[in-house]
Amino acid sequence: MSCEYCEEAKTRKAGSGRSKTAARVIALLGQPNSGKSTLFNTLTGGRQHVGNWPGKTVEKKEGRFQHNERQYLAADLPGSYSLSAGSEEETVTRDYIASGEADVVCILADASQLERSLYMLADFAPLNVPAILLLNMMDVAKEKGIAVDAKLLEERLGIPVVPFVASNPKDYGVFYAALERAGATIKTPPAFPYTSGEPGEEPDVLVEADIKFKWIETLLDGAVKKTKGSAAAFSRFDRAATSNVKGKFIAIGIAIAGLVAATIPFLIISGIANMIPSLLGPPLAAFLQSVGLGSFLTSLVVSGVLNTFVFAIQMAASVFGITFVFGLLEDVGYMARVSFVFDGVMSKLGLQGKAIMPFFVSLGCTISGAAGTRVIDTWGQRVLAMALMWAVPCAAILAIIPVLANIFFGWGTLFVMLGIFAVMVIHMMITAKVFGRTLVSEQDRTGMIMELPPYHKPKWKLLFKTTILRAKDIFIRAFRVIFVMTVLFFCLTWTADGNVENSVIYKIGSFIEPVTRVFGLGWQLFMAFIAAAFAKEAVLGVLGALYMGSGGIFESTFSKSTQTVEGFGAVIADAISKPEALAFIFAVSFTVPCVMAMASTYSENHSLKWTLRIAGYYMATALLLSLVIFHVSSLFF
């Protein structure tokens, strides 16, 4: 490998001029599944900032921690297998190290398979930068009968080498000690032929890789001993789990079981949260009226703020369940198997195999699906996965659409549902083309090169801590987003006398009805279409409010009830034609999932621009789909 950026790193480091009182910068470097995220989360806890690297679709994670009254800034660099700058992640990682920003680079390696996990170290070796080698997963190595002589490796490398278990708090004492001594003396690693060609000549990649692996083999000679048969064949389950056919069925089964398990805490917490408006609403309204607050503000606080609070709690509960389940699967080593068996299928959409699990979960709830994308390694692929999973009909859609379809089409409901799933597949393929080129580079569309980590016991305490921190962060972010949108929708639908014709949304709807009619949507259907972006369960209640006067639009939207009033079917069947009904059904099925899904997507991708871009795209394509279906179906009905 060329070492053209070695001198750049030295020069920048020497001239950095950082204040002695400034936080010491620690860069975390390692391959995917090396334990970087566990180390980063343990060190920084909730003191994290997540965004994107300037000009890159690559996630940037930074967090702060303190030890012995010294401030540290940890930078979690994108997981990659080398510094050869083949992908955008590798480019970001290489450039950051070359910039000299880091005072110490912590390189993580899987101690249970050092022969294959030190490739990153071979790339890093020529850089004269203070570093620590963390031999992570020493507990797994011990279980496999592998003994590692860390002292011998330290002598050969000239940098601190620390046996480590990132999920064990007791191991952090040696980590902090290594941080303090790293950089005190910088020794040059053993002689290493960094390039396979003559100066100025393009190196042969295969020859260069062979050189690196030979260097690793020399480095580990005598330092790694296997005390028992650690290279045994896969277990019966693992053979099935990595099978091209059986593995897919196992993954689907586990995804369904995980969704059920994740739903349990959601249902419990959601049930308790749903009691808040009825318990606090009346006394709060009475208090606000007693202090002279007007009816508008009283209604806003009682209906809007309380419902926003409930929605945020429900969203945090959903994320808590799914984060715990996916974290558990990742922790024990199973998620890598899912990636392996589905990688070929998902790569056609520009995604990793891991994306299949969030897709399955989205059949239950898009919010949980968005949270599940955290297992995907790159930011661009995570955003693309979120964009695609918005096309997956969630449980709310699967609950209300059959009700509507049955009113208008009877036994034809089966064909309506089959049509929705057919459009879902086509929609995902088109969406992958629309957003994929921007979010995922061509080199990232090939099959994954990855290590299958060994199975190991989950670290329950750390898993619970990480899950709770994640749910708390989601609650805060969700409350902000949902509150703004709830207030906006409340202002559009509020009337002093309860007559919907006096609302702003009615005036807007009736004004633009000549345009919405082009899409097969009268103003009532269009308003229900807008309400569906807040909560899909609201559709039936809003239709009842608009066509039967059975309640206010806002109250019907946020009650999230799928129950219909008596005579509902007969009234809307008489008021809405079959082409209009079919256009509305497909428009609602493929518009923005719900306001909470939008908030969850924003919380996961940390980009308002991309969240709004995806939302605008789905609104536009839903109306386009409505237009096509309305005019085509008008030829037959």
Q: Structural class from helices and strands?
A: alpha/beta
Looking at the overall shape, the CATH architecture of the domain at 6-226 is 3-Layer(aba) Sandwich
CATH class of the domain at 6-226: Alpha Beta
Strand order of the largest sheet: 2-3-4-1-5-6-8
Q: What does the largest sheet look like?
A: 7 strands, mixed
Please tell me how large the radius of gyration is: 28 Å
Beta strand % = 5-15%
Poorly predicted tracts of residues: 1-17, 186-193
Q: What would you say about this model in short?
A:
This protein has 637 residues and is of the alpha/beta class.
Task: Give structural notes.
With 637 residues, the protein is of the alpha/beta class. The protein has a domain at 6-226: Rossmann fold (3-Layer(aba) Sandwich). Helix content is 60%, strand content 8%. It has 28 helices and 9 strands. It has helices spanning 6-14, 36-44, 88-99, 114-117, 119-124, 138-143, 150-157, 172-181, 205-220, 236-241, 246-273, 275-290, 295-332, 335-347, 356-362, 366-372, 379-389, 395-409, 413-439, 460-493, 504-516, 523-532, 538-548, 553-559, 568-575, 578-589, 595-605, 608-633; strands at 24-30, 48-52, 59-67, 70-76, 104-110, 131-136, 146-148, 161-163, 224-226. The strands form 2 sheets. It has a 7-stranded mixed β-sheet. Strands 7-9 form a two-stranded antiparallel sheet. β3 (59-67) and β4 (70-76) form a beta hairpin.
